[in-house]
Amino acid sequence: MNDASKVNPETRERVQKAMRKLGYQPSRVAQRLRATKGRSKLLGLIIPDIQNQFYSNIVRGVEDVAYGKDYAVILCNSDENPNKERFYLDVLQSESVDGVILPPIHQYSKVVEGLVEAGVPIVCVDRKLVREAVDTVVINNQKGGFIAVDHLIELGHKRIAILSSSSQFSSFEERQKGYEEALKASGINVDPDLIREGDPRSSENARELTKELLALESPPTAIFATNNLMTLGALEAINEAGLKIPRDISVVGFDDMPWAKAITPPLTVIKQPGYEMGRRSAELMFQRVADPGREPVQITMEPSIIVRQSTGKVKINKK
Amino acid sequence: MNDASKVNPETRERVQKAMRKLGYQPSRVAQRLRATKGRSKLLGLIIPDIQNQFYSNIVRGVEDVAYGKDYAVILCNSDENPNKERFYLDVLQSESVDGVILPPIHQYSKVVEGLVEAGVPIVCVDRKLVREAVDTVVINNQKGGFIAVDHLIELGHKRIAILSSSSQFSSFEERQKGYEEALKASGINVDPDLIREGDPRSSENARELTKELLALESPPTAIFATNNLMTLGALEAINEAGLKIPRDISVVGFDDMPWAKAITPPLTVIKQPGYEMGRRSAELMFQRVADPGREPVQITMEPSIIVRQSTGKVKINKK
DNA sequence: GTGAAAGCGCTAACAG
DNA sequence: CTGTTAGCGCTTTCAC
Predict the structure, then answer these.
(1) Residue pLDDT, tens place only, B149-201
(2) What is the spatial distance, in angstroms and rounded to an integer, between the CA atom of B99 and the C1' atom of C13?
(3) What are chain B's domains?
(4) Number of Cβ pairs < 8 A linking chain A and chain B
(5) Dihedral sign of CA atoms A219, A222, A224, A228 in order
(6) Is the Cα torsion angle B133, B135, B141, B144 positive or negative in sign?
(7) CB distance from B75 to chain A under 8 Å?
(8) Full-prediction pTM beyond 0.90?
(9) CA–CA separation, A139 vs A125, rounded Å?
């Protein structure tokens, strides 16, 4: 029934007919219980929050690849809560999934590192693990930050603010590094007043931060928001202040959200290939399941800037 | 170990300590294999597309309830493809999930109806099944359509277009019914030219449709877009045509997307409580698992209109 | 109150 | 090439 190779063709046909007739479906549960290693047809996927479009892109990429291989995926939302992450990791192990794909909450994670060492196939996506060599799919975040800010500098901006994360996620740290790098490369001082760190899961928080920025004695002429939710918050605050983009202020967002080109003016963004990142992660996963001994690889994908009308030449603010 | 009731407390304590010491974790797979009915700790969730924010809201609602009950959920994307739906339904059965939550692709679905009759706990969310009595969580779509259009009528609009679905989803049919009802209630003729049906999964398609609408000899002064993607497409087409909202045209969208209030001008929408719908669906699921004999219930939630600045008083078009 | 045994549905290993 | 068997890890039942 399972291995078509060494069976009498007519017997095979007879069996298949019987299967169809009886509507027989093998129990994946029993299969999994018996199989033990690497053929459980189940994948675990832990993400911070499915309501974040960037992560739903990743999820879709993973699922599409899984579907093609007859795998199902268990989806878990961690809310950036390490306890939830650990809980789900336990559940997934207990479900004997073939592997787990996740953006690790901490760069140094005892739990995840432990699993890697225990030989559980793990793929990190979007964020890295520092100590352990694991299959990883990320984008070049520093470059993303750099090109965003460099674009603004080219337009003449000198007071460029950044909305970043107060938590230590590798992705945000790198984007911020890119921001500073771009400024320095153009001989612009990094003004700590223009660096605002908050909760990247809260557009509300970004809105507050942006308000503060706009209320500054010498407010920024441009804002770089380092993820989709923060971009939203920045936009809200700017609208509320009655400012016009790009006349009064320029904005570069992170992530090419579907609505970015539908708004007025269309939003300039750094595009992350979320769907593709999901696909690649799942592919790495399957490679590792097939060959647990393989050396870990790290795939770095390229972000790109999509210039639209939310950025414009700077104007001198005359008071 | 499992049932705390009838065990010597000190033995229990001893066992628990041993469990912790050895890091023992029961295998949910083996549990599921043995358990057979209604305690598998796994739920199936089939949605059209996780990249659609409305569905990711539902997913989040389901998962949060599941998490609270120590359940995991297998997520499947059907892409509105009945074959994929059937495929996943088979997979989920084979995984012996305790039940499946889904917006059925067809109102008359042999497969889903079959499962219901076979006693598999099913909860329909967002869309209904016509023939079979099943637990269902929907919103009052007709009312949603009605209040959207009625709002536009009150602003003086008479030529109101609708972007609806060419496929026969119960939700869209009802929204369209509400549209017609509102027009009739105000003595406005339903102009077939203003009713455009397309693929609700494609903002691109909605963009085309809107372009056609705007190119009409007597174009609409307002557009009602019946889901989030179609709203996006409409907005794009309007921007491209150089029209200003609400000066030149008014728009009401469906779904309160996070970006709706961050854009200029903020978008008036009919809000669906997606997250809550997910929660309620999961709750119904658990109720049914606990009591398979219970009468099916249908929960109808209320949509609400959130009036923002994308709708304005109609102006007379003078050529 | 506690311990032993049967069996869920499958696959791998082995004997015919 | 085909048929039989043991056992994956658990829960339930039944005997102690």
Answers:
(1) 999 999 999 999 999 999 999 999 999 999 999 999 999 999 999 999 999 99
(2) 36
(3) 1-30 (no CATH), 31-139+274-302 (3.40.50.2300), 141-272 (3.40.50.2300)
(4) 142
(5) positive
(6) positive
(7) yes
(8) yes
(9) 9
